[in-house]
Amino acid sequence: MYRYDEFDHKIVTERVEQFRGQVARRLSGELSEDEFKPLRLMNGLYLQLHAYMLRVAVPYGTLSSKQLRQLAHIARKYDKGYAHFTTRQNVQYNWPRLADVPDILKDLADVEMHALQTSGNCIRNITTDPYAGVSADELEDPRPWAEILRQWSSLHPEFSFLPRKFKIAINGAKEDRAAILFHDIGIGMARGDNDEVGFRVYVGGGQGRTPMIAECIREFLPKADLLAYMEAILRVYNRFGRRDNLYKSRIKILVHQIGAEDMAKQVEVEFAAIQKQSDSLKVPQKEVDRILAYFAPKNYESLGEFAPETEEARLADEAFARWLDVNTADHKVPGYRIVNISTKPIGGIPGDMSADDMDAVADLADKFSFSELRVTHKQNLTFTDVRRKDLHALWKALDERGLASANISLITDQIACPGLDYCNLANTRSIPIAQEISQRFEDADLQRRIGRLHINISGCINACGHHHVGHIGILGVDKKGVEYYQVGLGGSSDNNGSIGKIVGPAFARNEIVDAIGTIVDTYLDQRVDGEEFLDTYRRIGLQPFKETLYDTAQH
Amino acid sequence: MILRNINNRFEFVEDNFERIEDDAPVPATGAVLVSANRWLEEHDALSGRAEPVGVWIEGDGDLEGLGEKCAQLELVALRFPVFKDGRAYSQARLLRERYGFKGELRATGNILRDQLAFMERCGFDAFELDERVGLEQFNKALTEISVCYQPTGDGRVPVYQLRAARTPLEQTRATA
Amino acid sequence: MAQHHNQTAQTLAVTANRLLDGEVVYFTAGGSWSEHFGDAAVVHNKDDGEALLQKAMPSVEALEIIGPYLFEVRELGDGAAPVSVRENIRMKGPTVRLDLGKQAERPRV
Q1: At the fourth CATH level, which superfamily is domain A134-292?
Q2: Which residues contact A469 (CB under 8 A, 6 or more apart)?
Q3: Which residues of A501-540 are buried (b: 16+ CB within 10 A; e: fewer)?
Q4: Closest of A542, A1, A13 to residue A298, by C-alpha
Q5: Which residues of A fall within a CB distance of 8 Å from C83?
Q6: Using CA atoms, how far apart are residues A181 and A128, in angstroms rounded to an integer?
Q7: How do residues A16-48 score in pLDDT, each as one tens digit?
Q8: Cβ-based interface (< 8 Å): residues of B facing A
């Protein structure tokens, strides 16, 4: 993974001291809360219901075991012994004291981490495929480009006060595991003429109040032009994006208003002008090579695809066999597997992990996966490089700590935002709904029978729980101070991205889990061989679900 | 009061430009600041003046027509209606980097100490402030972050160019 | 976005977050801030509510608290309780982590 050099260290260290000064000015009264708020937000510091919340960037979701241990240390020293992994592959602390935050940032800087631009109307943490660099279906590893984008976007003086926040995702594989169609800019690695690898660029996707699927504005962009093209998009947006209405200020609204074709034209004009002006946005090949070297393939052993000890254990231990099937994925190198660690035990809080578990996972990463791991946008963790023959030992170690839930992409692998249990913007709670659904579908065989099914839950219209792209999406709504839950069906953030459709009137708190039960039953009744939930939904549509949910057939 | 960057140090200087509203006549003498629209409309008359002319552009103002002629101006004032309205950052870069404006580029409106470094990197070299205070803080704001990751035309070399210029030995030391 | 309080509410108290650590605090009849809802001054009409909020405002300048606001409470037999789910959660702590927040503290003697 990428390592800081003296420049990276310097900028992050200076930023910590700058923020220390800002906090001191706040605590001395020199800055009012109104003046301080944008400053703290640009360092990921929010004020939530019970306390401040600090969001730490995990650039494109990649962590070293050393960094994870430091995150655990911070959780113990400054917080309440746990942290929360988010859908932007970041980490949140729910209880820091304002005066401690500069020291937390210092501790982060010591392990080459920061909280830069994890909030505010700027370019946020760049996200990517958690399997980047190791999946068999990958054209090229997107992480070097994510790092180049991270550096370019950090403290960008022109784009730190955009009309609204700005999210970029990059994916290098055939399967879109980074939800690029639901980002302000989505970048897919693509092959152009002469087999040259570059980028396909999408713009204007997003969730929130007005969910939209991004449109392609550039079929092929040479690698060398990436930063110039990004500046062109951002400049068009910064100049012409709406600033009069918070809910209409994302780039998706601009793209929608002027149309993707006109957007593409404006970006191309600006891009051409930037190119003509200077080539200073072309990252020198030597620097690209320097960054690429950090992401070179690991020192893999040459192993056979077959590992007899793992096969024996698979036959002997049903729980291990299940975990192997559900939580591991193909690696491009024979004899290795990708291993997902679910943060979602039955009845657990999606994304939460104790400091002790974080330490344990760091130790296991050292032992089994080259001392690295990834945070996924589904709030889970991934070991990307585990020898097939080590799988049973890894599973046993995880299982002892209760970290071997075999539910990746199953119904209990839900995304849930923190909701009204923590969040100042939320209308309703999200986590208890996820917990109750998880308990309802506790039976492992039932989960496998249901198959791949993503339930995403948001506690308000801001859609941090990605409800629009859940196969089943749940949105909490406030009705005169009482929690209600609206259900959408058929959303998806994969290559055939779709936005869920609302099935009907919202359900009360005590009805919502039963409603999900009814939806699942309806699907199981209606599905034909080999179908997953999304297939069945796309074949039969909303109506059968409406009928069973609202009993409309009888009226 | 105008805060100007003079040899990388901020100093307060008097504003020599008189702001002339669109409905007021332009005086025959003295440096004047007029709206961009007026300058374009009364271009011939205004460019005949012996003394300096500057223009102001509102936050949503366009650079159409003005950019190409900006070399004739002594001063362009860009406005931040509220600090979080960042359009003037783009306008500033366009004026400096695309249209080659060399005169005074002045930020007006809601200017906060913690934005000065961003403004400066985008090409502003003067800042209109209500009071003559905070010189020490303003100077500190300029030097807090000494490294830049991206080129903006302010002459600072972005990190990727600095790295590419390193010798192999320096490179080894940097990452050791 | 979460509603802070119902405009027609009559029974009201004032809350805020403490500047230093964000802790939820309540404005007391004595004009200070308490971490405990039980200490909150409760008033019974909108005008008294506004007056209470005005009395609390100087604490912002004094760097004690951030963002004071009125919220609706309901009188019970031997005390009062916040009406909204939101204010109940602020008063106690996360409903999913009973070991955290005010609810986790030992009861006061």
Answers
A1: Sulfite Reductase Hemoprotein, domain 1 (3.30.413.10)
A2: A179, A182, A207, A211, A454, A456, A491, A492, A493, A497, A498, A499, A500
A3: bebeebbebeebbebbebbbebbeeebeeebbbbebbeeb
A4: A1
A5: 481
A6: 12
A7: 999 999 999 999 999 999 989 999 999 999 999
A8: 83-87, 89-91, 93, 97-98, 112, 114-115, 117-122, 140, 144-153, 158-164, 171, 174-175
**CA A149 to CA A202: how far, in whole Å?**
16
Contact assessment for residue A468 and residue A488, using Cβ atoms and an 8 Å cutoff: yes
State whether residue C14 is helix, strand or coil: strand
Please indicate whether chains B and C are in contact, defined as at least 3 beta carbon pairs under 8 Å: no
Domain A6-110 belongs in CATH node 3.90.480.20: yes
Q: Do A287 and B163 touch (CB under 8 A)?
A: yes
Give me the sheet containing B18-19, strands edge to edge: B9-13, B2-6, B126-128, B104-109, B75-80, B53-57, B32-35, B18-19
Chain C neighbors of A482, CB-CB under 8 A? 85
- Is C92 in contact with C102 (CB distance < 8 Å)? yes
- Domain membership of residue C4 (yes or no) is no
Chains A and C: how many Cβ contacts under 8 Å?
82
Amino acid at C61: E
User: Where is B6: in which H helix or E strand?
Assistant: strand B2-6
Distance separating alpha carbons of residues B80 and B115, to the nearest angstrom: 11
Residue pair A358/A373 in contact (Cβ under 8 Å)? The answer is no
Q: Which of B69, B71, B65, B62 is nearest to B101 (CA)?
A: B71
Helix (H, G, I), strand (E, B) or coil at A57: strand
Find where tokens 């089943």 sit.
A472
Tens-place pLDDT, residues C70-109: 999 998 887 889 999 999 999 999 999 999 999 998 665 5
Question: Is 0.90 topped by the overall pTM?
Answer: yes
C3 touches chain A (CB under 8 A): yes
The dihedral through the CA atoms of A292, A157, B120, B113 has a sign that is negative
**Predicted confidence (pLDDT) per residue in A484-529, tens digit:** 999 999 999 989 899 999 999 999 999 999 999 999 999 999 999 9
What lies within 8 Å, CB to CB, of A335 at 6+ separation is A300, A301, A302, A303, A304, A305, A307, A387, A388, A389
The CATH superfamily label for domain A415-554 reads Sulfite Reductase Hemoprotein, domain 1 (3.30.413.10)
Beta bridge partners of A206: A212
Q: What does the alpha-carbon distance between residue C102 and residue A280 come to, in Å, rounded to a whole number? A: 55
